[in-house]
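Record now logged underneath.
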Amino acid sequence: MIHPLLLTPVFRHRVWGGDRLAKWLAAGDSTAEAYERARARGRIGEAWVLADLPPTILDGKSRIATGPHEGNSLSDLLSAPPLRRSLMGHAKSGSAGENCFPLLVKLLDASENLSVQVHPDAAFAHRNPDTHMKSEMWLVLDAEPGAVIYRGIDPAVDRDALRRRILDDTLLDAMIRVPARAGDCFWLPSGICHALGAGTLVAEVQTPSDTTFRVWDWGRNDPSRPLHIEQAIECILLGDEQQIDRLEAPPHSPALSGERIAITGLVRTDFFDVERWTVCADTTIEHGAAGVPISWTVLAGEVRIPVLPTPLRTGGTIVIPAESPPWEAIAGPCGVELLVTTLPAPDLMHRSHGGLRLA
């Protein structure tokens, strides 16, 4: 059995990145120092706080920060059958392969607009083996006044009109804008054309793929950021296919509220369940084996976990193995807010609020 695994983030430079991730990455001195070193080389757009992507993606794996598996990736554990059973339990593998952990969790700092883009669905990935399906959700952590999310295309636009708008630079006029406010959650399944607007900082939970087709890039004309217009046109959902109503009210797990903890369901999908836990100061949480792996990312405050050398603070992320032995966590003196992601099992509707029990 494996105790909770503390992960080190991977920082990615992006042309649209900023400098606000510093206050969301108070996970420890080593994390802060690593961020500052990366920031000195350019703007940081993404912190991959849980990543286990295929080897074809450079620096695409988080490393375990402490304990007997220090320095290993989750793939290393998955390659050893006894450790694989302890880590994965009943959870199903993802599209990236049997030996890749089927989850990617990021923090994104958009000081400028991201490209308008789309991710392929499973059918496209099956026809094009060099791509991978990607669906994702965003939880807005911070947003400047007037910031927006671009999500979906005007249902009146057909595929011919879409091509014309892309080629004459009027695509943005046909996109659906949604205000971005702290606490808002956005579900972005494969095929939904979207962009993160300037002035937003979000937590992203997604299937483990970095396949992105850029449709329009705000006139940047950067050779290192090519457009993928034909692939995008093939992938983008239009009209009623977008199921706009479903995007506005994504399915979510039941909420739980008590004197010491409140749980808000954010999204409930075939790939992951995501909840936001708000835990009062000094509350003890007992955690038992849930049968599937779970991740915690601290959004505010801190939580003390006895098997870790220091408290888990803002931006800190752990993976709780499916067969983890019982342990306790204690919310810090100001409480803690957690982004909790549970991997579903293929043969049961597993919705146990992440193995939670209050002491």
